[in-house]
TrEMBL record:
Family under the similarity heading: Belongs to the histone deacetylase family. HD type 1 subfamily.
PANTHER family given in the database record: HISTONE DEACETYLASE 8 (PTHR10625:SF14), HISTONE DEACETYLASE HDAC1-RELATED (PTHR10625)
The EC number(s) this enzyme carries: 3.5.1.98
Histone deacetylase domain boundaries: 25-334
Swiss-Prot/TrEMBL keywords: Chromatin regulator, Chromosome, Cytoplasm, Hydrolase, Metal-binding, Nucleus, Repressor, Transcription, Transcription regulation
Single GO term (MF): histone deacetylase activity, hydrolytic mechanism
Subcellular location: Chromosome; Cytoplasm; Nucleus
Organism of origin: Roridomyces roridus
Name of the protein in question: Histone deacetylase 8
Gene Ontology cellular component annotations, sorted alphabetically: chromosome; cytoplasm; nucleus
Family annotation (InterPro entries): HDAC_I/II, HDACs, His_deacetylse_dom, His_deacetylse_dom_sf, Ureohydrolase_dom_sf
């Protein structure tokens, strides 16, 4: 009998797992993520009655495809690291937190290629979701690596989605589809927000929205990381949160997300699911939990997956407690498949099992950190988004 369940493309391959596991900022994380998902039976054809998983290897992006965003100078060097010297490396951001590493060229081709694979999977009628946990590299810039990010896969995916147009109606011009980028990582999505900031002015097609921590000197410093004001670009949105942000704060912040989503009504959503805001991450800035209560990461992702219309791409991002990142992305995969695992689920016995001590369950619970997002502050956030959503609605009506 024909399988009529909608497909969820899970983008991964052994080749990508090997090179992504060499990423200096997240050594071996990719191996943990995909191995846990497989051992929780998420790749089994009968895991979910609602949706079927389609294991999809990433394509290798060509120079030309990467050059759609990255500069030739950057690509000439990173795709053939024999091409430059120390001075070139420094100019291209390949020092400090972004050192060159073995397999870097393959990593860049595969992570960039996966973004394009995700978009081409969404072109298929039977596939309404794509999941790519090795992606979400939101700090990478056009001409340089930054913040542990070497390739701008989010931006490449958004550019590819922007090229999709609806089939033209028999009369009149074709309608361009709208794409919303929503970023849940602890850090501001500077690479992505800057990439579209100028081009999105006056355009009703693409909107970026980053919820993140901001404080003086906190990476990345950007004029775009502040709350929206009446004269800021309503298509480049930012919601900065203070220390200790918990489910309660995210539940309030989510009202702003819904306001914007309702006004913009996207056809495609790219959701960056960085997990460095979860409790237990070495960044230790937020106190967010994995699920399942309102405001948790799992709840936010299930709102997008289950209540928003349109097709979606879920990407990874930061997350420096690798077992917790594996837990989180396995759980989010089960949500994407329409069959959420219980957070009491025991970690199955497998090669990396000892790393899941002491709980050996799927849960990433909140800790004891105090939430410094006061009601007064959240009221300010609320009213800033109320105003900008009105402006957005007016701009879209033009
Ligand atoms: Zn981050």
């Amino acid at each position: 009998m024909e399988d009529t369940r909608p497909g969820v493309a899970y983008i991964a391959s052994l080749e990508l797992l090997k090179v992504a596991s060499r990423l200096p900022s997240n050594k071996n994380r990719s191996a943990l993520v995909h191995t846990l998902a497989r051992n929780l039976d998420l790749f089994a054809g009968d895991f979910s009655p609602a949706r079927r998983i389609v294991l999809t290897p990433p394509q290798n992006a060509t120079f030309k495809e990467l050059n759609n965003y990255h500069t030739k100078e950057y690509l000439d060097f990173v795709l053939d690291p024999n091409n430059g010297d120390e001075k070139t490396k420094a100019e291209l951001g390949l020092e400090d937190d972004c050192p060159t590493f073995e397999g870097m060229a393959d990593y860049i081709r595969l992570v960039g290629g996966a973004a394009l694979t995700a978009v081409s999977m969404l072109r298929e009628a039977q596939c309404d979701l794509a999941v790519f946990w090795d992606g979400g590299r939101h700090h990478a810039q056009k001409e340089k690596a930054a913040g542990f990010c070497y390739v701008a896969d989010c931006t490449l995916a958004l550019m590819a989605l922007r090229r999709i147009t609806q089939p033209p109606p028999s009369t009149g011009p074709s309608i361009k589809m709208r794409t919303m980028y929503l970023d849940l990582d602890l850090h501001f999505s500077d690479g992505v927000s800057h990439a579209f900031h100028k081009t999105s002015t006056g355009s009703a097609q693409l909107l970026t929205f980053s919820i993140h921590h901001a404080a003086p000197g906190f990476f990345p410093v950007s004029p775009l990381a502040a709350l929206p004001s009446p004269d800021s670009d309503p298509f480049t949105l930012s919601l900065p949160l203070r220390l200790g942000a918990s489910n309660r704060t995210f539940k309030r912040a989510w009202k702003c997300v819904e306001r914007v989503r309702t006004a913009f009504d996207p056809d495609f959503v790219v959701l960056q699911c960085g997990v460095d805001g979860l409790a237990g991450d070495p960044c230790a800035i937020f106190n967010w939990s994995l699920g399942p209560e309102e405001g948790s990461l799992g709840w936010c992702v299930s709102q997008v997956v289950n209540t928003w219309r349109g097709k979606k791409i879920l990407l990874g991002g930061g997350g420096y407690n690798s077992p917790n990142a594996a837990r989180a992305w396995a759980y989010l995969t089960s949500i994407a498949l329409g069959h959420p695992l219980s957070l009491d689920t025991e970690i199955p016995d497998h090669a990396h099992f000892p790393l899941y001590a002491p709980s050996f369950t799927l849960d990433v619970p909140a800790g004891n950190m105090q939430d410094q997002n006061s009601d007064d502050y959240l009221d300010t956030v609320d009213s800033a988004f109320e105003s900008i959503s009105t402006i957005l609605t007016e701009r879209l009506a033009k």
